[in-house]
Amino acid sequence: MGDADRPSAGLLSFVLPVHNEAANVHPLHGRLTAIVEQLGHEAEFIYVNDGSTDESLAVLRGLARRDPRVVVIDFSRNFGHQIAVTAGLDEARGDAVVIMDTDLQDPPEVVFDLVAAWQGGADVAYAERRTRKDSWFKRTTASAYYRLLRRLSDIDIPANTGDFRLIDRRVVEELKKYREVDRYLRGMVSHVGFTQVAVPFDRDERLHGETGYPMAKMLKLAADGILGFSTFPLTVISRIGFLASGLAVLGALYALAMKLFAPQNVVDGWTFIVMSVLFVGGLQISMLGILGQYIGRIYREVQDRPLYTVRSVYRHGEGRPTAGAPNGAARVGDA
């Protein structure tokens, strides 16, 4: 579809991953439906229940009974946020797809600006956080991470952005070809290319519940961003190896000079040797750990397992078991 052919009232798909967000679903859906009515677009709302342990699934099924535009994809277990978004993209049929979380930290009203940018010719309109109501620690670490990622990455990944964005149908079809297991979708979107523009916004506080991204998951996502789009850590290994070797040579020259020219100052003992061995050994273990991260990613890829398993799909409150195709690429049908 060319830029000039973009419909003023085409189908918008909303991909909405859900993990323990029972209290947020109804407020979010109410604001989204109001936005769609003002835009004049047809819409579908694809909620992906990512192994919630609260009442999220029951709330979503009730929503599907009342709104025929709602599709609920129920995972067989928790597969993670990035996989949940992937399942939604696999199902989406819209001329454009809006990806956003269900915690209401990303104001749904930003969709107006995203749609306007899309209709103005952008293939990807990504929401860029101008301000964010998070803790000082999270703001600081996020800022440092994005700076590091932009310096290390082989592609330009915009800073202060999450997965909140609108992407054109053409971009969705390209993204569906990316089936790696350790997924970093905002990096993939940048890798695809096309015309991408930023839409600044102010991020709100979480309305209800707790974050689905504790520190461990944040570190995993950060590692996926760096390891998935940069080979710089592998380059660092060789550089540190050369540095350690140079220091070892300097240490050997220093020890030899002291032995020849100032033997009275040489202290007998094993302290220097032990410290050197521990230092080099620690470097070797650290470097092996970095290599292990890349090897582990290769191992998971060659297993070629499905990305996700769908237990049921609900439309109008009805569900049926749905088997996943290889790589989790199967479309889910009407119940």
TrEMBL record:
Keyword vocabulary terms for this entry: Cell membrane, Glycosyltransferase, Membrane, Transferase, Transmembrane, Transmembrane helix
Annotated compartments: Cell membrane
Pfam families the record matches: Glycos_transf_2
Transmembrane segments: 236-257, 269-291
Molecular function GO labels: glycosyltransferase activity
Domain of life according to the entry: Bacteria
This protein's GO CC annotations: plasma membrane
Domain annotation Glycosyltransferase 2-like: ranges: 13-175
UniProt cross-references to Gene3D superfamilies, sorted A to Z: Spore Coat Polysaccharide Biosynthesis Protein SpsA, Chain A
Membrane topology listed for this record: Multi-pass membrane protein
PANTHER family attached to this UniProt entry: PROPHAGE BACTOPRENOL GLUCOSYL TRANSFERASE HOMOLOG (PTHR48090:SF1), UNDECAPRENYL-PHOSPHATE 4-DEOXY-4-FORMAMIDO-L-ARABINOSE TRANSFERASE-RELATED (PTHR48090)
Family: Belongs to the glycosyltransferase 2 family. GtrB subfamily.
Protein name as catalogued: Glycosyltransferase
